[in-house]
Every structure is written in C-alpha cells, then in structure tokens.
Specification:
Blueprint (H helix, E strand, L loop, with lengths): L14 H13 L10 H14 L20 H14 L1 H20 L2 H13 L4 E4 L15 E4 L9 E11 L6 E7 L9 E7 L5 E6 L8 E11 L4 E2 L5 H37 L1 E2 L2 E2 L4 H29 L6 H27 L9 H10 L8 H14 L11
Parallel strand pairs: 1-4
Antiparallel strand pairs: 2-3, 3-7, 4-5, 5-8, 6-7, 9-10
Helix pairs in contact: 1-3, 2-4, 3-4, 3-6, 4-5, 4-6, 6-7, 6-8, 6-9, 7-8, 8-9, 8-10
Amino acid sequence: MKAPLHHLSLPFFDPLHAELAQALSDWVPQQDVDEADDRAACKAWVRKLGDAGWLRYAVPAAFGGALPALDSRALVILRETLAFHSPLADFAFAMQGLGSGAISLGGTPAQQADYLPAVARGDKIAAFALSEPDAGSDVAAMKTVAFVAHPESGTAGFVLNGSKTWISNGGIADFYCVFAKTEPTAGSRGISAFIVDTDTPGLDTSEHIHVMAPHPLGTLKFDDCRLPANARLGEVNGGFKLAMRTLDIFRASVAGAALGMARRALAEAISHAQGRKMFGQTLADFQLTQAKLGEMAALIDAAALLTYRAAWMRDGQIAGNYTMAAAMAKMTATENAQRVIDMALQLHGGLGVKVGTKVESLYRDIRSLRIYEGATEVQQLIIGKAALKGDGQAAIFRTE
C-alpha cells in the first residue's frame, strides 16, 4: 500500500517536497526490517535511512545535509510518508534530527563537524535528553546538575549528576544532548546543554523502558560523569532556550507523523469496508460506514492544513507566532489521528483488535504522540496564552 500524494499540490509546498515524497513512497515499502526487536529494528532503520541518503534532511548542508538549513516542510513530508508505512522507521528518522538538532542550532563548528556528518550518514545514533522523573512538562523542575570540576581553572570541565528518563534512543544512542542545571536556584534560566558520548565514564544507560508501542526508550543515570569543557553546547545557562528552539522545529513534524498514521488508518478502513461482505452487500454500502469514512477524511484534512501551515510559516519566515501555529498543528493532528484510528479499528470489528493487524498496531503507535514533545494539555496552554495576547486566530500573525 502506497502513501497518498494528492495533498502535495497544496500551495504550501515546492516541487522539491513532492519529489521527496514520491521517492520515499517508492523506497520505503521495499525495505525489509524485522521489527520484533525494537532496539535492533531502530538501528537497522537508521542504517538503511543513512545509506539511502534520507538522513541528510535531518542536518544542514554544511555538515553533510541535503538542504542549506533544516526545512520544516521536508521534515513534515518525510515523517508523514515514513509513518504511513512504519511508525518505527519514522521514529528512527525523527530522532536523528531531534537528537542532533541542538548541535545544528547551537553547536560550535568543531562540535558540528564531529557529530552532524556522522548523523547524516547513519554512523552515529542521536538522542535528546531533557525529561526527568519529576520534570516532564515542568522543565524548570529538573534536578540533574552540572558543576564546574575545578573553578580555579580557566579551561575546567564539568561534573554531571542526576538522571533523565523517557529518553528516546536511550541505550542505543552514540551520544546524548543533555540538559542540566548549572545554576540550580535559577529555574529555567539556569539550564545549560552538554554533549555526552555514550562511553563517558559515569553514564549508565542500562535501564530500558517497555511501552505499549515498542520503540527504544531508556533512563540515563549520571554519577560523577566528567565532561571536558568543550562538551558544553551553546551558552552557559542558555540551555532552556536552545531546547525550546529545537522542539519548535520538530513539533510540526510530530503532527506530520500523526498524519501519516491517520492516512494509513483511513486507507485500511476503506479497503476493509469495500471487501467486507455482509447482509448481501459490502460494509462500504452502508450509509453509517460512509458517514464514518467522511468524518475520518475531514479530520485528516483539517489537521493537514494546520500542519502544513505551521511548517510553511517557519520555512518562509512568515511574520507571526510560529510557536502557536506549531502547537495548534501538533495538538490537532495527534488528537484527530487518535479519533481516526479508533474509528478505523471499530469498522474492522473483531479483526481490529487482533494482534498483528495494521489498525491494531496503529492504535498503540498513535497514543504516545499525544504526550511526547509536549502533551496536548501543554499545547492548549501555549495556544491559550498566545490567544490572550492577540485576537484569537489573529494572534498567529501578530507582527510585533
């Protein structure tokens, strides 16, 4: 089953984006990856995506990427196409971009040269380590700390102590972009970022987290983890802004992944409805079925327009509140996809809950997207606060 491409005629896209989607739609169904072991499968997908050149869209051209800068529309289209076929392939691609995004945005030339080309080739697996047991949405509550090892030395390194959890690629990544308090009493203004290689003494990545839709997740523990001075990423105490800038770029792409899953669910529902015989006709002949399919299609298109608008705003540097637009896209696409997939499963009847069917796996896959990179409730707060400063929808295009 091929991913649909009709939406690429919308004015948000350039010919490049249509070419990318067409090429990826042709390539990904030909790949044979055994996804029974999520950790091994994720590594295999990174290898395949790197060898085929798709990971080049996760880093800037100066460091082995395909485009001069990270292109939000390309990220959205690639994730949508991958998620239509394999949510785990989408995960592998997305984490290469998110995990190295802080280096693309705030790394020194030396850091960028050391890590980004390897990410683009698939030679190094990246991870983004922000969340903690008591600091998910409330980033300022993080307890992981980084102290200067020898303050009297002008070139001193850092000592990292604490833990991170719910870390995607935890345990399989070659390096982690880690955020820690360098001024513990300064809230979000006291956070700095660091690059931590997986073989750094004092880093323990052995604890794995098993979730309903298998993909590599883990807990990181730092016990007097010593880092050189050049491991710091960006400015001292500039970590919070760097983390938010990174998430802003990739938030719309989460919506893209949700669109891909929703489109696959609709395609599966249509195929099943047209082939399911009952009461002398097909399931598709019933008006109730047609009404459900119509609602699913409308939910997908509504989410798609918000998603593509957000990516278009960032790429075109459109004056306005991109953060608000991306939050609307992420919230709507993930929530709508959950509804679409639930309706698709319902149309399949008992077959929909059989382990191994596509709609059953989609039902598990979509659930986490409503939580990670900012839960739906967080997106609502972002949108609501921005709306209070403007005029509802007009707040997106405020120019001051």
